[in-house]
Amino acid sequence: MGSLEETPLADFAACMETNYFGALRCIQAVLPAMRQRGKGTIVNITLMASRATLEAE
């Protein structure tokens, strides 16, 4: 937790790799079988662990 300008880009990349690209990989893995069956539903559930409001000084 810290200010945006002090957070390393590697931390953002790790977060995107898990939360965004991880979900895309899972969807890509199940889509072929869903298309073959002609049906299916994908539900993505996300969690916001914490919410914080920061004021710039």
Q: In a few lines, what is going on in this structure?
A:
It is built from 1 helix and no strands. The chain has 57 residues and is mainly α.
Please provide a written account of the structure.
This protein is mainly alpha-helical and 57 residues long. It has one domain (1-57). It has 1 helix and no strands. It has one helix spanning 9-37. The longest helix has 29 residues, at 9-37. It is elongated, with a radius of gyration of 17 Å. The two termini are 17 Å apart. The model has no long low-confidence stretch (mean pLDDT 83).
List the helices and strands in order.
Answer: H
Mean pLDDT over the full residue set: 83
> Are there runs of 5+ residues with pLDDT below 50, and where?
none
Fraction of residues in helix = 40-55%
Secondary-structure topology with pairs:
Blueprint: H1 9-37
Considering the chains and any ligands shown, give keywords for the structure:
about 50% helix, single chain, about 55 residues, elongated, mainly alpha
